[in-house]
Design a protein that fits this description.
The N terminus is likely disordered. α2 crosses α4, α3 packs antiparallel against α4 and α6 runs parallel beside α8. The protein is an alpha/beta fold. The chain is built from 9 helices and 10 strands. The protein has an 8-stranded mixed sheet, sandwiched between helices. Strands 6-7 form a two-stranded antiparallel sheet. 45% of the residues lie in helices and 19% in strands. The longest helix has 23 residues.
Length: 217
């Protein structure tokens, strides 16, 4: 595996950021262009957003199977990927091991049809897929969403053990994500993508407002 892949950062970009995510990707690309070589690899995992939400409604109202809903939701991630690519000019890839520096957006359908590593459930969505990709690549993971981090009793937590997060239940991350982080011994930082400078700080491993979820404990 190349050194580029080994230094990869996996960034889950939530569907909640549909209005601002293209500008975020453009901001990050401009920063990379200004730095010059060596250029890190940033692999974007798209959320499902309104595309997966429409599948959820069909699942609930039309009685399709969990299996069908799972793959339709993965295709919803690809729809969001196409949207992000079109609006930002970011390239897409179907190969998570492709050793390309800079930003690329993963098209996950064919990859997941080949590997199919996760349960087919609405508790396991794009956060968990991003965690699996990060595990396969040995990469750092950043979850970019529309809130400042994991909020408990009205307060954004700076650091939170994944074990604690499991006890909390519903939050801004998939309910199965803490289990995957614990299993892999991997951390994940949650940051607000409406502030591109925060995402950049997280990529550069600088102090940033957000929540560090500790799976490596």
């Amino acid at each position: 595996m190349s050194s580029i892949v080994q230094s990869c950062t996996v960034i889950k970009v939530g569907g909640s950021l549909m209005e601002t995510a293209p500008e975020l990707l453009i901001y990050l690309q401009k920063h990379l262009d200004s730095k010059g070589p060596p250029v890190p690899r940033l692999l974007i995992i798209p959320g499902g957003g309104i595309f997966a939400d429409s599948v959820r409604k069909v699942h609930e109202n039309k009685g399709i199977s969990d299996e069908a809903a799972h793959w339709m939701a993965i295709l919803g991630m690809e729809q969001y990927a196409y949207y992000l690519a079109d609006k930002s000019g970011t390239r897409t890839t179907e190969d998570m091991y492709e050793p390309v520096a800079g930003i690329s957006i993963l098209m996950p359908y064919r990859l997941l049809r080949k590997w199919d590593p996760l349960p087919h459930s609405w508790n396991v969505t794009s956060d968990c897929i991003a965690a699996w990709v990060a595990s396969m690549l040995g990469a750092r993971m950043i979850k970019v969403t529309d809130v400042d981090g994991v909020i408990i009793n009205g307060k954004t937590e700076n650091v939170l053990n994944a074990v604690e997060l499991q006890k909390i239940g519903k939050s801004c991350v998939d309910s199965v994500l803490p289990e995957l982080l614990i299993k892999d011994g991997r951390d994940c930082i949650v940051v607000n993508g409406k502030y591109p400078e925060r995402v950049l700080a997280a990529i550069e491993q600088k102090a940033v407002r957000g929540t560090l979820i500790k799976g490596n404990i």
